[in-house]
Every structure is written in structure tokens, then in C-alpha cells.
Design a protein that fits this description.
The chain contains no helices and 11 strands. By secondary structure, the chain is mainly beta. A hairpin with an 8-residue loop joins strand 9 and strand 10. The radius of gyration is 13 Å and the shape is globular.
Length: 120
């Protein structure tokens, strides 16, 4: 199993980024996927989950309205669209594979992470 995040970088406050998580080594559309982040000096923070078919998504309260999770099962890729970014969104962002097909916050594989820095 391999999860590879991309799309991070430096962005100004108010800007947008789209993160991608390319998956391989398992049947992608059998599993829900999640995004988790870790800011400097802080614990891991769950951000969102998307069910196996993309039909349902779940978000941490602080993400609602700004971030959107999606997936393309034909491309074995999950996405996180981040808008209206704030300096406090600066963190390493990870995608994680759920153990099941629906939201459960039980993960068995993680990507290596991609750095997002929001700064002017």
C-alpha cells in the first residue's frame, strides 16, 4: 500500500490549494479516505473523511465551508480543496486509508505528508 500526497506549498492568506493523495496497492474504491494534519508543536488533527464512493463527506467544524474533500476512484486519487486559507492552517497534511468503506477514523496506512504554509 502506498499513499502519496502532493500539492502543498506556500500560499498567501486567503489563497487556495488543492491537495492530492495518489493511492496504490489496494482496491481504492473499497475504502474511505481521510485527511489529517499536524501543525508545528501540536497534535494530529482530523480534518475530513470521505466514504468509498464519495457519496458522503465529513468535516471538522473548523473546516466546514472552506475545505472540500473529493475522490476520483477511476484515478485512485483523493483530493482536498482548501480555500480561504489562514496562517493557522499551516501544517503537514496527511492522507490516510480507513480500515473500512465508511467514516470510522480507524486508519491502517498513512502517506508521507505534504507541507502547507500560509504566510504573506
Amino acid at each position: 500500500v502506498q499513499l502519496v500526497e502532493s500539492g502543498g506549498g506556500l500560499v498567501q492568506p486567503g489563497g487556495s490549494l488543492r491537495l492530492s493523495c495518489a493511492a496504490s496497492g489496494f482496491t481504492f474504491d473499497d475504502y474511505a479516505m481521510s485527511w489529517v494534519r499536524q501543525a508545528p508543536g501540536k497534535w494530529l488533527e482530523w480534518m475530513s473523511d470521505i466514504n468509498w464512493d464519495g457519496g458522503s463527506s465529513y468535516y471538522a467544524e473548523s473546516m466546514k465551508g472552506r475545505f472540500t474533500s473529493s475522490r476520483d476512484n477511476a484515478r485512485n486519487t483523493a483530493y482536498l480543496q482548501m480555500n480561504s486559507l489562514k496562517p493557522e492552517d499551516t501544517a503537514v497534511y496527511y492522507c490516510a486509508k480507513e480500515r473500512g468503506s465508511h467514516y470510522g477514523r480507524e486508519y491502517d496506512y498513512w502517506g508521507q505528508g505534504t507541507q502547507v504554509t500560509v504566510s504573506s
